[in-house]
Write a structure and sequence with these properties.
The protein contains six helices and six strands. By secondary structure, the protein is of the alpha+beta class. The strands form two sheets. A four-stranded mixed beta sheet has the order 2-1-4-3, with helices on one face. It has a two-stranded antiparallel sheet with strand order 5-6.
Length: 194
């Protein structure tokens, strides 16, 4: 065997993991914007082979089995509609997304933690209605005081977000990598030409 064959054989599988497929619901909308609904290329090919998805766009890259060659899917559409979630899970990430990755006291981005508006020491609970994203300095400044005692105000009163609100928030934060074949199916905050 020649060295080039062995080198490409060993390196190719690792390189192929960089070909994710955008997964769209049966209505041609992403299942999720943030995080963006992506599958590894292997899952996309398997789902197409099992007739669970239709392939809408492909990469130029090809993978081969013993009997066939397949172009790697870059966009797939589910054949059956998946109903959106009825409620949003209360997680740190979703809290930050709801608050648009900004401190709700000063508006700073980065170095975020979360804060109980009514401190737990004063009977506050950990819920959508009582927890906000806060930068470390505002969190330390507020401590276990109420807003009035700390002389602080909120940009927005905290509330439980709907799945639709979270999708809209997610559209404002595109990931670092967007393949050109995905752009027709993603609606980031782009102005339409008149």
């Amino acid at each position: 065997m020649d060295g080039d064959f062995r080198t490409s054989f060993v390196r190719e599988p690792a390189a192929l993991k960089h070909y994710p497929a955008l997964v769209l619901n049966a209505d041609y909308r992403p299942l999720s914007y943030y995080p963006l609904s992506l599958w590894p290329w292997q899952e996309a090919i398997k789902a197409a082979f099992l007739d669970r998805v239709s392939i809408v766009a492909e990469y130029d890259q090809v993978v081969r089995s013993q009997r066939a060659a397949f172009r790697i899917p870059s966009v797939v559409v589910l054949k059956e509609f998946v109903s959106p979630q009825k409620r949003v899970a209360f997680t740190r990430f979703n809290l930050f997304l709801r608050d648009e990755f900004r401190c709700q006291y000063c508006g700073a981005k980065g170095d975020l933690t979360f804060d109980h508006v009514l401190p737990r020491a004063r009977g506050g609970v950990t819920s959508w209605q009582n927890v906000v994203a806060a930068c470390s300095s505002c969190n330390l400044r507020k401590g276990s005081k109420t807003l009035r005692q700390a002389g602080m105000r909120l940009f927005r009163a905290p509330k439980e977000p709907t799945p639709a609100e979270m999708q809209r928030h997610g559209q404002r934060f595109p990931p670092n990598h967007l393949h050109e074949s995905w752009l027709d199916y993603l609606y980031w905050d782009a102005e339409l030409e008149a």
